């Protein structure tokens, strides 16, 4: 198996590992127990990996870290919208001005 294929498969698993957290947040309408600092650190690290992937021209590194960055930023947004107040209606909060 080529290193690029291994990179694509590994990237898929590590990238999509954050989807259950997003689904749980939407289901419970809460991000109370999720650390905003951790999410920001992960997003920053993924941004650095994205830059690294671009610098070495590695398509798997760029693709999966770009997707990961989008997912982490989604979680950061959900955390900011829900705050520490506990459960709120995320859909209603996203619609309000």
How would you characterize this protein structure?
The structure is a single chain. With 97 residues, the protein is mostly helical. It has a domain at 1-31. It is built from five helices and no strands. The chain is elongated and about 45 Å long. The mean pLDDT is 85.
Short description:
The chain has helices at 3-16, 19-28, 36-55, 59-82, 90-95. By secondary structure, it is mainly alpha-helical. Helix 1 (3-16) packs parallel to helix 4, helix 2 (19-28) packs parallel to helix 4 and helix 3 runs antiparallel to helix 4 (59-82).
Tell me the layout of helices and strands.
Elements: H1 3-16, H2 19-28, H3 36-55, H4 59-82, H5 90-95
Record keyword descriptors for this entry:
mainly alpha, 97 residues, elongated, single chain
- List the helices and strands in order: HHHHH
Largest sheet: none
Q: Enumerate the spans where pLDDT stays under 50 for 5 or more consecutive residues.
A: none
Helix content: over 70%
Shape: elongated
Rg is 15 Å
Give the strand tally.
Answer: 0
Proportion of residues in extended strands? under 5%
Integer average pLDDT: 85
Task: Specify the structural class.
Answer: mainly alpha
How many distinct helices?
5
Gap between N and C termini, in Å?
A: 50 Å
